[in-house]
Specification:
Layout (H helix, E strand, L loop, with lengths): L9 H24 L11 H12 L5 H23 L11 H16 L1 H5 L22 H30 L5 H15 L11 H9 L5 H18 L8 H11 L1 H4 L4 H8 L1 H16 L2 H21 L22 E3 L2 E7 L4 E5 L20 E4 L5
Antiparallel strand pairs: 1-2, 2-3, 3-4
């Protein structure tokens, strides 16, 4: 199933991840403003949630808005003007997110923000791990079809997020190896009644923005989560939810800026730009999984269209004994206008017009209009 990666072009990945970032932003707005309503789930999450936000925006909590504004400002300033500006001088990035959580927890506890200003807190954090037990294999036939769909969609989303960071940090991923890792992880987690493993874009961005670059960062994160689950969970009870939401939104800043990739795609390939827009709009309006599927199908459709409309060229060899290419000026060769320059391996000839070609020098094949061909230099 690693071949799924073949159908995920950069435009599809960009549209999916940017759309998912706006989904995350939408889910955090109610915590940023301190408003209360039941968060929409499933299809049309984005428009339904924003309708509810505008309905309840008059109920915003001023204290929560102030906490959000201060948190986002501090985190953004430290990340932009300290961690990024002095990246080469600092031994490691300033852990502003962790510091923000600690300070906000202490301030909330001492100032009693929940009772005095109705600020929503994290509240009770469940502690401990569930006891492992065998999955109910007798119910396999009831969930098999859904399981296959979830496996394909979750893997495609995982690879999309992995390719996003691979492109940013200039390394390659092996989709088959990724699939094997997710398969082993799902088998192990099934004994603890866990959700299907899938890349969490918000958490991944936060960890990457905090300086995490290798699998060691993942191990440290797992160890910290385990410690909090077993021993320190109650310490997070006074933490305002607005602080966590602010950290997530600031970490996703670069994801939102991917919208400006459209300017580059406009100049490079307008069809790729169209794939990006269709994928992004589908993710935003419908949901992430259906949007991904629509983007892949639309991309395949355009590939078929490109194949049907591709320019055809008949390429052959020319006897180049009489050919002399002026490296600075256009050269007329047997009635064929060509702009050429000498390369180490040969001469590149760009056909500028469709002209009749004389028999001197002899012609064995004709390259059609606007095709670029590399002609090997004649050897004595």
């Amino acid at each position: 199933m690693g071949m799924v990666n073949t159908y995920l072009s950069d435009a599809v990945v960009g549209g999916v991840t940017t759309g998912a970032a706006f989904h995350i932003l939408t889910s955090q707005v109610k915590d940023i403003l301190g408003i209360r309503f039941k968060l929409a789930r499933g299809a049309h999450f984005f428009p339904r949630t924003w309708i509810e936000i505008f309905r309840h925006i008059g109920e915003s909590n001023p204290a929560t808005v102030i906490i959000s504004a201060v948190s986002m400002t501090i985190v953004s300033v430290v990340k932009t003007h300290v961690n990024e500006r002095f990246a080469k001088r600092l031994p490691f990035p300033v852990p502003v997110e962790m510091g923000m959580v600690v300070v906000a927890t202490l301030v909330s506890s001492l100032a009693n923000l929940e009772q005095r200003f109705s600020v929503r807190l994290v509240g009770t954090v469940p502690s401990g791990f569930p006891r492992p037990r065998l999955p109910v294999f007798s119910a396999m036939h009831l969930v098999l079809q859904d399981a296959i769909v979830m496996a394909v969609v979750s893997f495609a989303l995982n690879v999309s997020v992995a390719r996003l960071f691979a492109k940013k940090h200039e390394y390659r991923i092996d989709p088959t190896q990724e699939l094997l890792a997710y398969g082993v992880g799902n088998v192990f987690s099934s004994f603890f009644e866990s959700y299907v493993l899938c890349a969490a874009l918000a958490r991944s961005v936060v960890q990457e923005a905090s300086g995490g670059r290798t699998q060691l960062a993942g191990l440290v994160s797992c160890a910290v989560v385990a410690i909090f689950l077993l021993f320190l969970g109650p310490l997070l009870q006074p933490l305002p939810q607005a602080v966590l939401a602010s950290i997530v939104l600031v970490a996703l800043k670069r994801m939102y800026l991917q919208v400006f990739d459209l300017r580059t795609l406009w100049h490079v390939d307008k069809l790729e730009m169209l794939v990006w827009i269709v994928t992004f709009a589908s993710v935003l309006i419908i949901d992430v999984a259906p949007g991904l599927l629509i983007g892949v199908v639309f991309n395949l459709f355009l590939l078929i269209v490109r194949a049907q409309l591709a320019a055809m060229a008949l390429l052959g060899q020319l006897e180049l004994a009489a050919l002399r290419v002026n490296e600075n000026l256009d050269t007329v060769m047997g009635g064929l206008l060509a702009a050429g320059h000498r390369r180490r391996q040969g001469v590149t000839v760009t056909l500028e017009s469709r002209a009749s070609v004389d028999e001197d020098p002899p012609l064995r094949a004709l390259a059609l209009l606007r095709q670029r061909v590399a002609i090997q230099e004649a050897r004595p």
